[in-house]
Amino acid sequence: MYSTISAFPTNTFSSSNYWVDVVFTSSSNLAITKASLPKGTQSVLYGQSLFASGGKTPYTWSLLSGSLPAGLTLSSAGLISGTPTAAGVFDFTVQVTDSSNPQQTAGLPLRIVVTTSGSCPCTIWPSTAAPTNVDVGPDSSVELGVTFRSDTNGYVTGIRFYKSAGNTGTHVGNLWSSTGILLATGTFIGETASGWQQVNFPSPVAVTANIVYVASYYSAVGHYSADWDYFATSGADNAPLHALADGSAAPNGLFAYGSTSVFLGIRTSPRTTGWMWYSTRVRSERKQEFSYCGTYGFWICRQL
Predict the structure, then answer these.
(1) Are 107 and 95 a contacting pair, CB within 8 Å?
(2) What pTM does this model have?
(3) Domains in the chain, CATH or no CATH each
(4) What is the Cα–Cα distance from 199 to 268, expressed in whole angstroms?
């Protein structure tokens, strides 16, 4: 096609070859191949390299969004290193850029969990702890729980409860938010005749530092273990975990009667405005109209 400037050619003549050529380079899609990162420990040296495939090397790495744990840095060569100074759960997104022309980029969200240097996985009470009243006797089906918080971000992987020999049947462990949202549940299997029992959730549940949660289990026959007024003036502490003193930030020693697992939260009594459905005492007085609720001395909780 004849023209005084470049124009798209549309004409042909005798299938001619005008000996015009192209320069081509093969390319594959750039991708980050390291999909997860191991946990770190506070005050312990950490080092992990990131990897990518495709595109053209060398690669250049950068932090696209979020934040690394305090004390860690990401080098342009893809090395996350340093010494974490605080525990918690840290989410961020990394980006890799290749050397092709034009350049390719790829991003990937990642997470680093930094735990304390203590002996976690940990529990509020040691396995050697035992209740004063191992078996309070028969009762209706009831959900029993504890209010707790953690000093650091982390995960709840399961629920434990102390079992008396008379506490038979199927038991269900639950983790709740303080507002009654069920976060995880699991049925205890392979229980021993008595002592501490444990169920692990199908997936660990992330919990946030200093936020109140409720752990509970369901017993169909009573015969649960209890220490009356245990939380009346103080809680139970095994850092980073803390079972709260009753009323310090939320009620403790929670319970709720029902034919299935139910949330143990604060409720107004059906008989008297302002009375609460919580207590550190869970004792049925079957000759009374209501069961007595220990610490607060309120005749509330459930109608018999």
Answers:
(1) yes
(2) 0.53
(3) 31-115 (2.60.40.10), 142-303 (2.60.120)
(4) 32
